[in-house]
Amino acid sequence: MALAAAEALVKSGDLRALAVTGEQRWFSLPDVPTMIESGFPGFVSDTFNALFAPAGTPPEIIALLSKTSQTVLKTPEAREQAHRAGYQIVGGTPEQLAARLASEIPAVKELVGRLGIKVE
User: Fold this and answer.
1) Structural domains of the chain, with CATH
2) CA torsion, points 70, 71, 74, 75, in degrees to nearest 10?
């Protein structure tokens, strides 16, 4: 279950959160330990949203989009809206996103192959 959907149930006591799967405790559930704290070293699984541009977009356009989006994402209004929706803004650089994708895609491909999942 996604954290945003489950958070209200955890706070109401209808659901007991055993752990969160991020590297750090979640901002709005500070009493819920991480999987790492619960005895599973290296267990990190989180979701993210990112902005992408078409291949071949000129570097100066990428730089402008990155700078502008990071400026907007740092505003109190954006952070407040994200928190109300159950999200936390990170707002990294294009290079950080590329590094994340470069590490996650092979790991997911390996998992899919090991489990025998067929793409349809």
Assistant:
1) 1-47 (3.40.190.10)
2) -140
